[in-house]
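USER: I would love a firmer grasp of how sequence relates to backbone shape in proteins. This is the protein in question:
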Amino acid sequence: MPARNSIKQYLENGYYHLYNRGVEKRKIFLDQQDYSVFLSYLKEYLLPKDYEGLDKRLSEPALSPRERDKIIKTLRMNNFYGEITLLAYCLMPNHFHFFIKQKNASSMDKFINSLGTRYSMFFNKKYDRVGSLYQGVYKAVQITGEPQFIYLSKYIHKQALSSLQGEALEAQPSSFGEYVGERKTEWIYPEEILSYFSKTNPYLSYQSFVTENSTQDEEIILDKLKLEA
């Protein structure tokens, strides 16, 4: 029997919960550098690539061979600006969650496979290991209604917050900081979800929504979207 949510429906302009975890539930992030590298890959993929500026630098006579190779590599690298919109995310020690919207039916698959392969290569080289880093193919489930749309980001952010234990938000990377106004990141788009919440009434704010206890109805709504045990 296929793993839960391993069979996907690829739809244009579809919203999805993407996730995967380490093989045998092992950690895929062992230190802060691992988190930082993974986030740097996300940034490169989701921000627009400055083709004109890179081409201009390539024409500089004083450019070193090393810099030239680096620029050529950057020009060839995949880019998903305009194809993938990242609404929310969190990175946990042995798994990750993304809440995304894809423009074209094939955008999500190309994005997550490119990201997964690139990070696996970094991780295996750094820790002198071989073999698969992840527990099978990535999982994806389509968001099919407004309740799922609203509660998915809460589920994602609640995971990150529950592991902090008084530490700063950066200790467990997630997009919660963008949602509560602590930072602004060009490649994260919280506005669509935040439109459901008050900016002036703390009792109706997004932060209050995430930190309140989950209800039974909420658990039922999220059941099909969750990472299996």
In short: The longest helix spans residues 107-126. The beta strands are 15-21, 84-92, 95-102, 139-142. Residues 46 and 223 are 29 Å apart (CA to CA).
